[in-house]
Specification:
With 194 residues, the protein is α+β, with helices and mostly antiparallel strands. Helices cover 34% and strands 24% of the residues. Strands 1, 2, 3, 4, 5, 6, 7 and 8 form an eight-stranded mixed sheet that branches. It holds the Pfam family Acetyltransf_7.
């Protein structure tokens, strides 16, 4: 089960956007706050949108958009805010990619998150196994979900994920972690059809 710093986070006006994300997402999924701030300041593809209803950080590349963190205010969940936000990204006409915790029956949020993306037309990349490790070296797996306005192969999604690892996850990673967070040659396994 995922461990969150606060299982029932409040959407306090006193909290900044990073605190909101950190109170919701598992610790091992959160980037260092300064790494995220440097991404926003120094990586031309990385951006943040924030309103009273949501916080989203994402990287927009020429052919795809990687949604890094998407968090809807708990008071407005179930009212279409997240779906409208995804439709905003879909309107760009590019493949959208997200990393999602595999559903865990003991963690209702993981199940709801998968259902949310599937309801919005995202499909799981069945052939890509994506395994990273936390600071203690404990491995964890994330599922890759994607949506595309056109037919897209999972091999293209894998190429995009490798770009995401190199450009976003590993952005100044040595400075903040003393290691690469996601070496693209090590974290992915391609499952051939049987």
């Amino acid at each position: 089960m995922s461990h969150r710093s606060n299982p029932n986070p409040e959407w306090s006006v006193a909290m900044d956007w990073y605190e909101r994300l950190a109170n919701y997402f598992p610790e091992h999924e959160m980037k260092h706050p300064e790494q995220l701030r440097e991404l926003l300041q120094h990586h031309e593809a990385y951006r943040k949108m924030e309103t009273q209803d949501y916080v989203v950080t994402y990287a927009e590349f020429p052919d795809f958009v990687f949604i890094d963190y998407l968090l809807v205010n708990p008071r407005t969940r179930g009212k279409g805010v997240g779906s409208r936000l995804l439709n905003h990204f879909k309107a760009r006409g590019k493949t959208l990619i997200v990393e999602v915790e595999p559903p865990d029956a003991e963690d209702e949020d993981t199940v709801k998150r998968v259902q949310f993306y599937e309801r919005n037309g995202f499909v799981r990349a069945e052939r890509i196994t994506y395994t990273r490790s936390d600071d203690d070296g404990t491995p964890y797996t994330m599922d890759i979900y994607y949506w595309s306005p056109d037919e897209v192969s999972e091999q293209a999604v894998l190429r995009n994920m490798k770009t995401i690892c190199r450009e976003i996850h590993n952005f100044r990673a040595m400075k903040y972690y003393g290691r690469l967070l996601a070496d693209p040659e090590e974290v992915f396994t391609w499952e051939s059809p049987t």
